[in-house]
Structures are given as structure tokens and as C-alpha cells.
Amino acid sequence: MGRSVPLPRRLILLLGRVLRKSPGRSPADRPIRPTNLLMATLIHKIRSDRAMAEANAERRAHRRMALRLPVECRREGQDGEYVVRTITQDICTSGIYLELDEPGFRKGDRLSVELTIPPSEGVSSDAGLGTCEAEVVRTNRVRRIGESFDRYGVALRFLGPLRISY
Length: 166
Known about the structure:
By secondary structure, this protein is an alpha+beta fold. The chain has helices spanning 9-20, 34-59, and strands at 70-77, 80-92, 95-100, 110-117, 128-142, 151-158, 163-165.
């Protein structure tokens, strides 16, 4: 489900007139048909969605790819070592996004990341390992339709180049 966007004042006034069903005094205050209100609402939603998509596209410096790779994230701190093994949701040249069953990382945490790179024709017949340091730049709660539990999304930004070994 998308993020909610506040309705413009004009749309709120239209909605109020339709709900009251009272004719106004001037042409601007005439009752609005529900079909007109529906169209105005849909147009507002489409424009809002388009604006959000454009804003998100401009915010991303690198193209994301929906690659599901095994990953191990390790955080060392005063409370000891915390290790999570999961699968990436997507990856780009500047970072990765993954989902966890429990909240384990906070924004600003620095992690050691190990990505397992599967063998591929023309590159290597063996699996490879990509390692680097990363920083948690965003965490969010993820709710999936039909699941009885929440997952926790974690966006990581690579702090250096991904070192790959085969």
C-alpha cells in the first residue's frame, strides 16, 4: 500500500458539498455529482503517484536490480557480535536492500557484509564472495498481505568498493 498524500483543499471542499447534499448560493457552490468527485479524486491520486515516482527516481543515483543473493551481515559492538544471514531483495552498485524477520539493525550501524555470488557462464564456474563494509541508511517495517507477521526492511550503503574473490 502506498504512502498517504494529503488531499488538496479544493477536493476536501468538493467532498464536503457532496456529503452535505445542500445546494450552494453561487455557481461555485453548486452541488458536485459523485462521479465528478470520483474523477477529481482519481486525477489527484494519479498526479500524486506520478510526483512520488519522479521524486524517488531522482533520489536514486544507481539503477536497482532485483537480485536475490545470499548475504551475511555482521555487526560488532559492546554487546558482542550480531550476525544475520538472509537473502537480498535488490542490489545496486552503491548498496543492497534486505528484509529480516526481526529488527536487528538501526540507522547508522556499520556492518561487515559478505555476498555469495553464484557461478555464471563466462565469469566463473565457481561461486564467488563479495565483501565490503556498509552502513545502515534506512530501516522500515514491511507488512505483506496474507502474512501473519511483519518483516523489517534494511537499506545498506556500501562504504567502499565490493571486493570480489573466486
